[in-house]
Amino acid sequence: MTALxxxxxxxxxxxxxxxxxGGGGSMLAVPALIYLLDxxxxxxxxxxxxxxxxxxxxxxxxxxxxxxxxxxxxxxFAAAGLVPAALxxxxxxxxxxxxxxxxxxxIAGVAALRMLRPSASAQDGIPVRPVRVAGAGAGLGAVTGVxxxxxxxLAVPALxxxxxxxxxxxxxxxxxxITVNSLAALAARAGSTVSVxxxxxxxxxxxAVLGAWDGRRLAARVSSDLLRxxxxxxxxxVAAVMLADAVV
Length: 248
Prior knowledge:
Low-confidence stretches: none
Order of helices and strands: HHHHHHHHHH
Structural class: mainly alpha
Radius of gyration: 17 Å
């Protein structure tokens, strides 16, 4: 199977997961880039940021048209993550490959375990504490910058439990946060020596965007809980493989 076909297939699967599940779908991009397209961990995290940025921005437009984006809350949350995302983006290419792979495996495992738990529910009248909002936003920005993932599996619960948004608004608003953080991380990597192979990343990104639309249609036909559990177990397997690779 040629690299182009692998890029298209991997991008489509990533997009379908993103469209069907929202948070956590982009976790497939980094391992696919490393193990299918032979990218280094540093190059894979940079390329993943490109995929995440384009796919999240595209989905954000659709959610904004549906009135499902809380712009003020999202802007405050995203602002807290700008500096950590930029610092993480500048630091990531300088970290050892084994450390990046191991850290990604841990985050992927956390994402999978969170997906296996019942979804958080919004609580009316929740007190919004600026320190907690800033801390959650900064943590998400750092994860996005260093590991090249959108962090929707962290953003959505934080927007529900810390900012007090309803689930529908939290999902749409998380796309705003992810897009802003990813752009900041990409800008910080602009001067790095890590190169991206656009002959692979271009088709990968295009397939992910198209796959996201199919994922939304799939989510409307299949139980979201079933999809989430299947994806979570697959992600746990990926995390175990990557952790073994980092240790060995």
